[in-house]
Amino acid sequence: MADGGETSAALAHRVPDLGALQLLLAVARLGSLGAAARELGISQPAASSRVRSMERQLGVALVDRSPRGSTLTPTGVLVTDWARRIVEAAEAFDVGAQALRDTRDSRLRVAASMTIAEYLLPRWLIALRADFPGTAVSLAAGNSANVAERLLAGEADLGFVEGLEVPRGLDGVVVAHDRLVVVVAAGHPWARRRRAVVPAELAATPLVLRERGSGTRQVLEAALTDAAGVGELAPPLLEFASTTALKAAAVGGAGPSVLSELAVGEELSDRRLVEVPVEGLVLRRALRAVWPAGHRPAGPARDLLARARLSAPRSATRRS
Questions:
Q1: E strand or H helix at 288
Q2: Domain 107-316: which CATH number of 1.10.1370.40, 3.40.190.290, 3.40.47.10, 3.30.930.10
């Protein structure tokens, strides 16, 4: 018995293609090879050639041609009936495939690290919805390591991270820049000191911090290692997986914290938090859109990426 590959090849050789079958159906309906050619947008010689090729392929005569028009032979009538079923099945297949594409193209799964998810993404998603109101968006917020895991597992179409570099296995582009600030509650002793904190002192002080794996924690540890030569920070006073929880703890006087300036603008303005200068410490970071390596964002993911790059704050769009 022939294997599946040979059977498929034999069928492809014996069964006319869809274009030829559609031509035959048009001839049956219109009673003219010329009219059928015009309807399908091909020349009459091309249509005649296609019919002759189909007759040779099947080994039977399909169309009687005369000055008065073209009529199907009895065999042609039978073949046309079969052709109609094949064409209708192909059209049903195409409609179903298009429905699948429409469903895919109307869904967007986003994974974002906390600061971006809470303080930038809402604006970007509002802009996306204004242009594409039918797009359904789901958002998973976590740290930068979580975002990378979701993308690599196929659980997200586009991600946003805050770390020092693009996570392994992903491609990305910088969409904005951000600055981290050391903040304390107004009643904390650091809020009244006149001298800047030095990096070694900050590194030795228990802080209220984001968890390991977060971009904020990664940037802080790297900056302190460069500035103070410390191997690691003092054990955290408190750790939170949420920027909002971290900010609430700082406002409540739990201790010094390090947060994005995007997250604490209002609290700094009304003096619920005070920024503490740190001598010689650079706490700037790139905010990136990321996706699996080799798979450039398409559809709604591409649209969201474009809006992220266009609507990022002017102070945050300088290239690294």
A1: strand 284-292
A2: 3.40.190.290
- Secondary structure element (H or E) that encloses residue 273, with its range: strand 273-275
Q: CB of 257 within 8 A of CB of 209?
A: yes
Q: Which two tokens stand for residue 96?
A: 């179903």
Give 4-103's CATH code, choosing from 3.40.50.920, 2.60.40.10, 1.10.3720.10, 1.10.10.10.
1.10.10.10
Residue 93, C-beta contacts closer than 8 angstroms, at least 6 positions apart: none
Beta strand 170-185 with 136-142 is: unpaired
Q: Any alpha helices (H) in 260-318, and if so which ranges?
A: 261-269, 300-311
| pLDDT for 7 beyond 80 | no
Rounded CA-CA distance 195/292 in Å is 46
Element (H, E) at 102: helix 74-105
CB atoms inside a 10 Å sphere around CB 245: 15
pLDDT-derived band at 263 (thresholds 50, 70, 90) equals very high
Tens of pLDDT, residue by residue over 150-177, are 999 999 999 999 988 899 999 999 998 9
